[in-house]
């Protein structure tokens, strides 16, 4: 039997959590069973080269402006000519354009939607749009139980329509002490100072302001050396905030990096102060790398981190609590070692790439069987009642 053709779609392929999960998933698929391709709309990164090196086609379909009729026409042509067995979209914009292109192309390939961030306070248009998408999909994969619950509630679609599949992570071999020291020297980490790392895009979601404020609360002698690995529209703002807070000499902005694991293995701990998250790749990768983590208790993060056992949690936007955790880990090497060991053991057991691939392909198989029986969407599964009892 020939392999099933899978088209994975995302709006942009900059370095981010969903993008890294796409690479893990597509490179992990059994090519005798699955023939994957990637379609994206903008922002090429080194992740595209990783897919191409693995023999996976990756095509950019540029979109110009909010309503680009040529984009819709070309998208529909790709769907018609590709004759895909299944479509898997990883972002709400990719989902929306996939639904529209399917209608224009008149193809019936099942669409699997996604929920990758647990955020209730979205723009007013978001949940009606998400319901429009979900009710035209064959399934929804969320990367956290919190994200699945929230999306089911606000789209008024039955919980049974959602599958929760946590992100997967590659567990690297431990780094040699000489390599750790080489990275710290390369970054200019001062001798005797703790090394605090942030890995992620500099966007409002990640709340980098909270980290900067927390570091500024500490006495100068107790401040760690902070490295921010990532880029984004808030970089200039973050640099200005660090300067106005008087801590610019304690922070290095590294820009986009392809060696996040190497940085994590050299750091004393990683901080993720996000306003909202699904299941964070930065946290997973840091825990797998043996780097202790401090994170805001939002979205799927408490599903991943057991406070005081596999990491430290604090209330979102509480800079004082974050400062306390930073000071504690900076000064307590034994606690860092304990948290790192327990987190690495937990992630190794629970979040391997084979588990991600197996769970996702099980959803693929189920949606393909549904398609052969005439199709099933959220509208056919049923909707949840609202508080007043209406659908």
UniProtKB/TrEMBL annotation:
Gene Ontology molecular function terms on file: hexosyltransferase activity
InterPro entries, per database record: Glyco_trans_1 (IPR001296), Glyco_trans_4-like_N (IPR028098), Glycosyltransferase_grp1 (IPR050194)
Residue stretches making up the Glycosyl transferase family domain: 180-344
Glycosyltransferase subfamily 4-like N-terminal domain location: 15-169
Pfam family of the protein (one): Glycos_transf_1
Protein name per its UniProtKB record: Glycosyltransferase
